[in-house]
Amino acid sequence: MSSSTAASRLSPVTGATPLSLCAREPHVPADRLVAEMVPPPRFDSVRFATYIPDPKQPSQTEAVRVLEDFAAGLGGAPAAGSARRGLFGFGRARTKTPKSPAAPRGVYLDGGYGVGKTHLLASLWHATPAEPALKAFGTFVELTNLVGALGFQKTVQTLSGHRLLCIDEFELDDPGDTVLVSTLLGRLVEAGVALAATSNTLPGKLGEGRFAAADFLREIQGLSAHFRTLRIDGEDYRHRGLPEAPAPFSDEQVTKAAQTTENASLDDFAQLLEHLARVHPSRYGALTDGLGAVCLTGVRPVPDQSTALRLVVLADRLYDREVPVLASGLPFDRLFSEEMLNGGYRKKYFRAISRLTALARDAKGLVETA
User: Fold this and answer.
1) For burial by CB atoms within 10 Å, which of 10, 54, 255, 326 has the most?
2) How far apart (Å, rounded) are the C-alpha atoms in residues 287 and 279?
3) 277 — phi, psi (to 5°)?
4) What integer pLDDT is reported at residue 159 of this predicted model?
5) What is Dmax (Cα atoms) for the chain?
6) What per-residue confidence (pLDDT) applies to 245?
């Protein structure tokens, strides 16, 4: 979404009192968590046809071809257990003969941030010939939140009738959650659910996706044989051929834009970080409900890693919902310390910088029209 699109989408409301994220304390019932396991608004309209492969990266074109075949292979009437194994092979030629138990029943998209993995994962969800209620899409964090809300057995029962489960940003840096979700996926595979996933890298891995495939397959252990790996090379598309992110604005400009933009929030950055510590990350999506823009004053370096990881989740939810972010203070590429950017969670931080930069670019027109 361009800045001009953002500006036209948001009607100016002179003299309006801005909203405040710090004043929101949302409560999210479990049934909402289940109902929201669909591609987020940013990816609601994406399809394989709207993915634009980089001509210099043939792996991107190949990924589209393989995923289209995978989606087509998920057609037909669902059945339980091993009787459905024949549905999860790759390639256009399909027969009624069940495939061997070792045949791939899932796909893992391996690549650095910004190469379009989420776009492709959401396109797979849309292309799979099944009713939305038989397909689930969510981040790793959202899946663990679902288990926390429903309990393990109820989650298995809820998802086992699905044709496809897509997991974006599979977390490989929390051993406990990784074991939990791997166990869950094992139960779902037994029920005949097809799987698709992307992930981040483990702590200490500096390859920005280069080592992610091996790490992912090792961490899910017994499930590794069920995944085919698709390597997707390329640059961060959010910055490919685009202008640099706009410099931060003044407090006065940000405040005025918040007052003249419909459904905009206005918060001091430090106070917002404190508020995020009091709201569970599973509620960050609800925290942003109905927002037309997020306006922040006094952006400064994030003080510690726990705070930084909460900000990453908020950035993801804002990006998913295409909420422009207008800010004063430091530019977003100075949010995280060098130690953080060189540490185990570096990929998350770079993704947050990339996404916040894109949202700041979207918000530029709000000042121009204020």
Assistant:
1) 326
2) 9
3) -70, -20
4) 94
5) 68
6) 65
pLDDT-derived band at 312 (thresholds 50, 70, 90) equals very high
Residue type, 185: L
- Token couple for 321: 């919902």
The H-or-E segment that residue 299 falls in is strand 293-299
Amino acid of residue 218: R
pLDDT of residue 176: 76
The pTM of the full predicted model, rounded to 2 decimals, is 0.73
Distance between terminal CA atoms of the chain?
Answer: 19
Cβ-contact 164, 67 below 8 angstroms = no
Handedness of CA 133, 46, 108, 311 (dihedral sign): negative
User: Is residue 238 a contact partner of residue 358, using CB atoms and an 8 Å limit?
Assistant: yes
Residue 62 CA to residue 84 CA, distance in Å, equals 26
Strand order in the sheet with 325-329: 264-268, 293-299, 325-329
How far apart CA 72 and CA 82 sit, in angstroms, is: 19
Give the separation between CA 329 and CA 358, rounded to whole angstroms. Answer: 17
Phi-psi region of 329 (alpha: psi -120 to 50; beta: other; left: phi over 0): left
